[in-house]
Amino acid sequence: MERPPRSFYVLAVFFAVFLVFLYGPTITIAILSFQGPQGGLTFPMRGVSLHWFFDLFEQQAVGDIWGSFRRSFALGLMVMVTTVVVSVMGGMAFRKRFAGSTVLFYLIITSLVIPSILISLGVGLIFSQAGLNVHWSTSGFGSQLTWTLPFGLLIMFAVFNRFDSSYEEAARDLGASPWQTVRHVVLPIIAPSLIGVALFGFTLSYDEFARTLLTAGSYNTLPLEIFGMTTNVTTPVIFALGTLTTAFSFLVIGAFILLFWIMGKRRARQGSDAGQGMV
């Protein structure tokens, strides 16, 4: 068997170093979170236990960990649903040229290149000057949409650019109304992409810091709470919190992947049943 070229080993080493750089800090935090009651924020570890994980569920002297988690989770769901709905509507609207579509497209994309802290500052000022309440569910919600919607729309633009309109024409020829065509033809076909948009929307919102910094009002989201804890918490409880939030993120991603797999199996089964029915 021919040996791989030297470039293969160079690329393999580079990829391994990249993985260490990418996941090394997270793994380090996870390891330090399992210290004993006398543990500190650095190595060497002082014992091994689940003490700091149990400590998370007790009354904390500073911060509102679980309140901030609930706010981030609720905000993530709000942003996710809005991103999916608006992205689908926008993707369908941009299938046909209309007056100002090019300008509107570039305005949507522009929010990705503007520094996030400026978006947060601008939204916060608009709400303050308009006499509106600066709150995570209003101004925070709006500022995060400037981050998630462009990604969702770009995905939908790509999806509908490859979409075969003959499926819609066949549905209309069979007497389907426009809504029935969207519900029973378009949405099932683009469903895997909708899962991707939903995952983007939730995860980008859940860990967004800069665009929420000046728009969350008096109640912190989880990223803001963790940032605040870094200035006044000197125990591994903050590492335990980081480990749990990372595990939650992986759990969310796993749930979306499972949903994608279930939908794929269901579509395959429906296709097989349709094929047997034709036979």
From TrEMBL:
Residues 69-260 form the ABC transmembrane type-1 domain. It is a multi-pass membrane protein. Gene3D superfamilies: MetI-like (1.10.3720.10). The chain crosses the membrane at residues 7-34, 73-94, 103-127, 147-164, 185-206, 237-262. The keyword Nucleotide-binding does not apply. Keywords: Cell membrane, Membrane, Transmembrane, Transmembrane helix, Transport. One of its GO terms (cellular component) is plasma membrane. This is Putative spermidine/putrescine transport system permease protein. The lineage of its organism: Bacteria, Pseudomonadati, Pseudomonadota, Alphaproteobacteria, Rhodobacterales.
